[in-house]
Write a structure and sequence with these properties.
There is one protein chain. This protein has about 600 residues and is α/β, with parallel strands linked by helices. The chain is built from 14 helices and 25 strands. The strands form 8 sheets. An 8-stranded mixed beta sheet has the order 3-16-11-4-5-6-17-25, with helices on both faces. β13 and β14 form a beta hairpin. α7 packs across α8 and α7 runs antiparallel to α10. It is elongated. The two termini are about 50 Å apart. Keywords: Membrane, Transmembrane, Transmembrane helix. It holds the Pfam family LytR_cpsA_psr. Belongs to the LytR/CpsA/Psr (LCP) family.
Length: about 600
Amino acid sequence: MDAQGRGRAGDNNVDPADQWVFDPDTGNYELRLDPAGQAAARPSDRNAAGRRAARKRDAGVGDTDTRPLPTQRGRQGEGTADGDDERPAGGRAARRAAANRTATATAAEAGPASRRKRKPKKSGKKRALHWTAGAVGFVLVAGCGAGYFIYQQLDGNISKVDVGVENDAVSDGPVNLLIIGTDSRSGKGNGGYGDAGSVGHADTTILMHISKDRTNATAMSIPRDMIADVPSCPTKQKDGSTKNIPGEQGVRFNTSLGQEGRDPGCTWRTVEKMTGLKINHFMMADFNAVKELSNAVDGVEVCAAKDINDPKSHLKLKAGRHVVKGEQALAFVRTRHTVGFGSDLSRIELQQQFLSSLIRKLKSSAFSSPGKLYDVSQAATKALTVDTGIGTASKLLDFGTDLKKVDIDKVTFATVPVLDNPDDPATVILDKAKADPLFAMVRADHTLAKGKKGKGKKSAPVKKAPPERVRVDVSNGGGPIGSAQETVDWLQNSKGAKLSTNAGNAPSKLAATRLEYGPNQADQAAALADWMGLPKSALKKSSQNAGDREPMKLVLGKDFKAPGSPIEAPTETPDGVQNVNADDKNICAK
């Protein structure tokens, strides 16, 4: 047993849970390094030990270092006067008199008793929240920071990778955490999983965005078989040198890790390029993470809407609710052949169900015991590889504490929208029409979590005109050079709006894009606003109807980026984007 960790060197059968004592004054558990059942060393013990050691040195008896190990704070009932551990000479009366003198001296030093009430003990639920951080990204959001022991016990468990970016553990703005599950067979117990020759690809990837005000979080699952562009990336070598890995165009997303020696920094840069979001930190885990974490929490409840018998993942479940852990939990998050469409997209939905249930369990008051949370934190940190910005237990604690405000009903899982790849049925491609508004929504720090609906009546939506009736003149009033013609080409070729024309440059620059139309062109304006992603503030309706062949006027402002890219981020989840709330207990695998 490590003398600086779970117990003193030489102790036998020390239960780590017994080494943590609840301090009612602070509401936290504190480490007790003395053997179970032995009183903590008191100041007088240390003074006496020092005097005895000095006498031994003066007499030439040994040179042993007698400095005591750190001790727990004084507990109620322990003496503080010098010599209170010495047995007074003489009979019982003498010993009683000596004890009385000691008590009187102690009371005199302490002064009058305080009338201040002691702080009430924290509830089991609050203690659980103070201990429940570090499991993997979601566990950090589920809790708010582990107890003090994480500094002492868990530092050595964490592996780090220098990705060439080192951000502070805590940020004042939104936080983007990249979570990667690798299919590497390296590591104890992983030999039977994944591809035999895999170098450790990005098998599961989730980008978790935590809002600036820490009130909500969005976790976007990125399909591993999606075609993506992987940019060139610097990687740290074992000898300390840096090797630049060339980028590739049009390859599977999962090859952003492992392939050609790519490290998590390459996946980091690939996701940034795809989403436009700046990543703060990453966490990576292997197959063991699911097995060990599910064991540590005594299993995770999952639901199957039908019987599942997947010979590939070896998962066998009857329809209904089950508690899975270990190998069965891993089989659940890896299965796909007998659920949904049998694709990776169906497997992602199972993973989202599993992680939601894991968060709910970790948020429950069942995790107030230090022994249980010790097991969870050990399992989590042993499974983790992180960037250097959160590469210590104390930094992970700071990171988790920063995210503690997120409520579970404000955590939403979504899947990045994709389409079947016409060139390769085994892969998929990004559905930009749905993905771009989703990414814009997250970049704008808008939540996907559904709020309470207002009682006021909404106005009926305006019926959209068919493309062949949309007539508009497009001019450039602040967008990139050539934006007017580019937009006209896009409207005619992609949307079928053949009555759109290029009106050249606007007479003056505009900060914001504007669409001018008459009351009788409301249906045309509704169609164009939908295509262009125009906010309501961009729509300027005149007081008079337009002429029979009079076009609407679209002026592209400085906020215009490209046709098809929303001018303003949506505030509601775009249609067609798969999403579930982490607090939804009724999700079942179909």
